[in-house]
Design a protein that fits this description.
single chain; about 500 residues; alpha/beta; Rossmann fold; 2 domains; 6-stranded mixed β-sheet; 17 helices; 24 strands
């Protein structure tokens, strides 16, 4: 590790009702990867947004390359070489991949934008990153994982001196994560300073040099990664040890009734002849690599995307699901992997989002019964341990993990019998993960049934009673959790038919 390139001292930041940062310190050195860790709501992303000029600090000093600075906006930070890759994607879905990468610094040919040249330069970037993406493809057509890789490529395309990765691997496959790590190691060898925000312990141990931990907006401490254990870091984050043991046997009775049956489902290019059953009280894990068709299967089942053919039965009765409204009517709730696009309305309050799928229950004539709405919202805030000052707080002001809890509260209020959890803990810290796992187990104990799509193998092995494996749009395997291992699941996930 080299000399200190950036320090933040005594940084303080408050929002209405929230003291987000309480005199926090941070030190970043050249040629190192510094992990920044803490539970959701600890203030990690807020601290980085203060650094890059998205938020104005209330107190404290920032020193960069020996000079005290305060960036007016992200563009000023970018020009100075301090760049952030956000957890929530900031791409414009109607533009091409190349147009997104070069937005604000377009390559011109006379008075016209030179799209061909931008495509060429983007292709060079992708070759360096070992990413198979067409620069001319419309951004909105890409998966969340591919969009995230484009965001990372965009950051690397600048002449950066400090890169902040905010949950960069949350939507990436194991192969894509390895490619990302190769790039990060190469940048570190060239003297780049990097901050790596992640909740994945294995990644922290694999890629970082030091770990700085925050808790509830305060600085807890900094330790050398190689000299610390996973439990050391977790204890600093949450003050308790959390164990993640895999499930060894199914909790579902052998005579449990089938609540959902899907036969020969086909939808577009990514869902090919998929059939499976879901039993009452079961957590059915869907595993596979990025692009395997798991999310597309869920969306076709939920009516969010049209199905080409196939039959769906709920409690033995054939149903016709053409829209999400139909799915909700039949008792199916869907927690999308992209919570900001499909899960919550960030401009509305916690209470409004909680009751969104059951608004008819809260109407009093032409008006909403606000007292009843608030009571239900508070019930879920307490049950899910959602960190929010009030239920009237807009969801945009909550951390990613707490936004996910609001989505869960919405479907709990609807009292759906079948819940589809698509990447339920994406971008969520280990403490909040444990709470959501506990909640999922409580739901199935009450007789609910859950389809859980997850890219984290440890999550699949910990939570599932049975695992469906997909590859390139097809179901390639089905295995009871008692026989499931990382090896046999990965074998099925790469089994092309």
């Amino acid at each position: 590790m080299g000399e200190v390139i950036l320090t933040m001292k005594g940084i303080d930041k408050s929002f209405p009702g929230v003291h987000a940062l309480d005199h926090v310190d941070l030190e970043i050195r050249k040629g190192e990867v510094l992990a920044l860790m803490g539970e959701n709501g600890a203030g990690k992303s807020t601290l980085m947004k203060v650094l890059t000029g998205i938020y104005k600090k209330d107190e404290g000093t920032i020193t960069y390359e020996g000079k005290e600075i305060e960036f007016e906006n992200p563009s000023a930070a970018q020009e100075a070489g301090v760049i952030i890759v956000h957890q929530e994607l900031n791409m414009l879905s109607h533009l091409t991949v190349a147009q997104n990468i070069f937005i604000g610094r377009e390559i011109m040919k006379g008075s016209m934008i030179d799209d061909a040249k931008m495509n060429e330069e983007a292709a060079k970037l992708f070759k360096k990153l070992n990413i198979d993406i067409d620069p001319a493809e419309t951004m909105g057509n890409l998966t969340v994982g591919k969009q995230q890789m484009c965001e990372i490529a965009k950051a690397i395309s600048h002449e950066a001196k400090v890169i902040i990765f905010d949950e960069p691997s949350a939507a990436l496959t194991e192969t894509e994560i390895e490619e990302l790590f190769k790039i990060i190691r190469d940048l570190r060898d060239k003297g780049m300073a990097m901050v790596y925000i992640s909740h994945r312990m294995d990644e922290i141990k694999a890629i970082t040099d030091r770990v700085t931990v925050m808790r509830d907006g305060t600085y807890v401490g900094t330790i050398i990664t190689k000299d610390s254990t996973k439990d050391d870091i977790i204890n600093m984050m949450v003050g308790r040890v959390i164990y993640e043991d895999p499930k060894t046997q199914s909790n579902v009775p052998k005579d449990a009734p089938v609540v959902l049956k899907v036969e020969h489902l086909n939808a577009g290019k990514m869902v090919k002849d998929v059939s499976f059953e879901l039993h009452k009280g079961e957590i059915l894990g869907f595993s596979g690599l990025m692009g395997a068709g798991r999310t597309e299967t869920a969306r076709a089942l939920f009516g969010a995307d049209p199905k080409d053919s196939g039959d769906i039965y709920i409690n033995g009765q054939k149903v016709d699901i053409k829209s999400p409204q139909d799915a909700v009517k039949y008792g199916i709730g869907y927690l999308s992997e992209d919570r900001k696009r499909y899960g919550v309305v960030v401009g509305k309050t916690v209470a409004e989002n909680t009751t969104m799928a059951t608004m008819e229950k809260f109407m009093k004539g032409l008006f909403i019964n606000k007292k009843k709405e608030d009571e239900v919202a508070w019930t879920h805030v307490k049950a899910l341990k959602t960190k929010t000052p009030t239920v009237d707080t807009e969801v945009v002001n909550l951390s990613g993990g707490n936004q996910q809890k609001v989505v869960i509260a919405k479907w709990l209020t609807r009292d759906c019998d079948i819940l589809i959890f698509d990447e339920p803990t994406r971008g969520i810290d280990i403490g909040a993960k444990s709470e959501i796992y506990t909640l999922m187990n409580e739901l199935v104990a009450q007789g609910k049934s859950i389809i859980m799509i997850s890219s984290e193998m440890t999550e699949v092995l910990r939570m599932s009673d049975r695992v469906i494996v997909m590859c390139e749009g097809r179901k390639t395997g089905e295995i009871d959790i008692s026989e499931a291992t990382q090896e046999n699941i990965m074998h099925m996930a790469t089994l092309r038919k």
